[in-house]
Design brief:
Elements: H1 4-9, H2 14-21, H3 23-43, E1 51-61, E2 64-68, E3 75-78, E4 94-101, E5 109-112, H4 113-128, E6 134-143, E7 146-151, E8 163-168, E9 187-196, E10 201-205, H5 206-224, E11 230-239, E12 242-246, E13 251-255, E14 276-285, E15 290-294, H6 306-309, E16 315-324, E17 327-333, E18 336-341, E19 363-372, E20 377-381, H7 393-396, E21 402-410, E22 414-420, E23 423-428, E24 450-459, E25 464-468, H8 480-484, E26 490-498, E27 502-508, E28 511-516, H9 518-521, H10 529-532, E29 538-547, E30 552-556, H11 599-609
Parallel strand pairs: 3-5, 13-15, 18-20, 23-25, 28-30
Antiparallel strand pairs: 1-2, 1-4, 2-3, 4-5, 6-7, 6-9, 7-8, 9-10, 11-12, 11-14, 12-13, 14-15, 16-17, 16-19, 17-18, 19-20, 21-22, 21-24, 22-23, 24-25, 26-27, 26-29, 27-28, 29-30
Helix pairs in contact: 2-3
Keywords: Repeat, Ribonucleoprotein, Ribosomal protein, RNA-binding
Pfam families: S1
GO molecular function, one term: structural constituent of ribosome
Length: 618
């Protein structure tokens, strides 16, 4: 019989063979060949593709292993299909291989030992495990989207044997680790999520297994945990406000305020991730499954007997640990801090911020001012360690004493005069001049001026000193002004201001008198004040009345006006509703002739006077 497969191997086609052997002989040979094939097929055992069969190693030559599986042709298996940790094949060994193809183009049988091993491993896995079962595997390597895990009868770190399954990155742990590659080379326990027999794919989850285990542990833990217990746990996560500690099935919160009796800026100063620590159970909320933990509660509170250790009034040394806009916190010992308010830092310095006096880390001496044990607060003072410049201030600045000072600040109600460092006095606008109307202290003074004043009054308890500038000279209203401006005398003056109720006339520097509207227009209702005088005009006026009590002078442009005798010490305010009719700038009531008002008051007076009218008396 002619072996056509052998002839084909030497690349001799049927046409050339027929030509060489002759047509009839060729046909006979073909017919005989087909008969022999049928006989061989009947006598040989049936082989199915993708079936695992047993074979005998005939030879090992180079990188090829010749294997006889009992078929009409032998098969070749590459030597590299034997893993590094496996024994290499020897002639005569019986091995299992997968029949990939019965006869290829060259008439050879295609075999694979590696695929046979994988099929056996796959059959072993699916025969023992199904979806939802737990299995142990070896992490082979990190791949896109997760990890490759080897499972099977024998685990392989290289993945050469067993079944390589997929562990998604999201299923590696409850909290996704920063680098899942750290699991490579380790054995892990997983739960089978999905088995695809057709594609021979398996997806597993370590997270699902941990969650189910933790759920059972949580149930047991919540059933036995109580407030006040000491438990061990592992730090799993750290935030700015505290750390989460795994107690075994459930996480508890260890707040930063419960870590130490002393001050800490961040939880990492006390604990690190994966630290195993002992904590006290502070509170258990079984409905919300929340547990509050404490570290400092395992030790006695330093606030016990704090009033004995730091009695009020005692002097102690401490370290500045924090500086805020309102003051500085001073540590007296670990766990005990007191606040020095900005107002308690200096008797003399005017501080805009505490850092002008102290800085973090500085050692300072303080006095204990007060203790609140309920709120665990201590009030401290720094200035109390120095003499108070207000002590005996009455003796240093008695009433009536002439003092020198520097203008430190100006307001609409007065000026603050620094008499010495830490001691200020107030010079009110009403005590700046006997005669001048002052609406703001800046009209008389400016910052930095050195002035001499008289001490008017001292309130040592309230730390206030009243000063006077006008008291440096005699009151001109007591003698000079009444003598110089006798009623009936005619004087010259300059118009400084026009209002709807009259005209202010400056008689001398800082001294004004009032011309009532009736004393300007002469009772002519068709005329207005502006028709007669303007600001800056120099006019002659007659003194109608000098009111020393209210320090006002009534004037008239009617130089021939008669002077009426005074009835009382003060005349009615010009244009004031409800008063009797004014006559020649003098009323017959005892009210004031006019008042030196603020700008707002004058505007209100002007509005109200528009509704009033007065008839001058000839």
């Amino acid at each position: 019989m002619v072996d056509r497969n052998l002839i084909r191997e030497f690349q001799v086609d049927d046409a050339e063979l027929d030509a060489a052997l002759g047509g009839e002989l060729g046909e006979w040979l073909i017919e005989e060949d087909e008969k022999m094939d049928r006989i061989y097929d009947k006598t040989s055992s049936p082989f199915d593709v993708n079936e695992i069969v047993h074979g005998k190693v005939l030879s090992v030559e180079g990188d090829e292993v010749l294997v006889d599986i009992g078929y009409k042709s032998e098969g070749m298996v590459p030597l590299y299909e034997w893993a590094e940790d496996e024994d290499k094949p020897n002639v005569g060994d019986t091995i299992e291989v997968l029949l990939e193809e019965i006869e290829d183009d060259f008439g050879l049988v295609l075999l694979s030992k590696r695929k046979a091993d994988r099929q056996k491993d796959w059959d072993w896995v699916v025969s023992r495990y199904s979806e939802g079962d737990t299995i142990i595997g070896m992490v082979v390597r990190k791949i896109k989207g997760g990890l490759l895990v080897n499972i099977g009868e024998t685990l392989s770190a290289t993945g050469a044997r067993g079944v390589n399954v997929f562990l998604p990155a999201s299923q590696v742990d409850i909290r996704r680790p920063q680098d899942i590659g750290e699991f490579v080379g380790n054995e892990i326990e997983c739960m089978i999520l999905k088995v695809d027999d057709a594609r021979k794919n398996i997806v597993v989850s370590r997270r699902r297994l941990i969650e189910e285990q933790r759920a059972e542990m949580k149930r047991k833990l919540l059933a036995e945990i109580e407030d006040g217990q000491i438990r061990k746990g592992v730090v799993k996560n750290i935030a700015d406000f505290g750390a989460f500690v795994d107690l075994g099935g459930i996480d508890g919160l260890l707040h930063i305020t419960d870590m130490s009796w002393g001050r800490i800026n961040h939880p990492t100063e006390m604990v690190q991730i994966d630290d195993e620590i002992e904590v006290m159970i502070l509170n258990v909320d079984r409905e919300k499954e929340k547990i509050a933990l404490g570290l400092k509660q395992k030790f006695p509170s330093p606030w016990e007997n704090v009033e004995t250790k730091y009695p009020v009034g005692s002097r102690v040394n401490g370290e500045v640990v924090n500086v805020m806009t309102y003051g500085a916190f001073v540590k007296l010992e670990d766990g005990i801090e007191g606040l020095v308010h900005i107002s308690e830092m200096s008797w003399t310095k005017r501080l805009n911020h505490p850092n002008e006096m102290v800085s973090i880390g500085q050692e300072v001496e303080v006095v204990v001012l007060g203790i609140n044990t309920d709120k665990q607060e201590i009030s401290l003072g720094m200035k109390q360690t120095q003499p108070n410049p207000w002590d005996n201030v009455t003796e240093k600045y008695p009433e009536g004493k002439s003092v020198n000072g520097v203008v430190r600040n100006l307001t609409n109600y007065g000026a603050f005069i620094e008499l010495e460092e830490g001691v200020d006095g107030l010079l009110h606008v009403s005590d700046m001049s006997w005669t001048r109307k002052i609406s703001h202290a800046s009209e008389m003074l400016k910052k930095g001026d050195e002035i001499e004043c008289i001490v008017v009054s001292v309130d040592e308890e309230r730390k206030r000193i009243a000063l006077g500038l006008k008291q440096m000279s005699d009151d001109p209203w007591e003698a000079r002004i009444p003598d110089q401006y006798q009623p009936g005398s005619i004087v010259k003056g300059s118009v400084t201001k026009i209002t709807n109720f009259g005209v202010f006339v400056e008689l001398e520097e800082e001294l004004e008198g009032l011309l009532h509207v009736s004393e300007v227009t002469g009772g002519d209702e068709e005329k207005t004040v502006e028709d007669v005088v303007k600001v800056g005009d120099e006019i002659e006026v007659k003194i109608l009345r000098v009111d020393t009590g209210d320090r006002k002078i009534g004037l008239s442009m009617k130089l021939d006006a008669e002077i009426e005798p005074e009835e009382g010490t003060a005349s009615a305010t010009a244009g004031e509703p409800g008063t009797k009719e004014l006559k020649g700038g003098m009323g017959d009531s005892s009210g004031p002739l006019f008042s030196l008002k603020s700008a707002q008051e004058e505007e209100a007076a002007e509005q109200s006077s528009e509704e009033e009218s007065s008839t001058p008396e000839e």
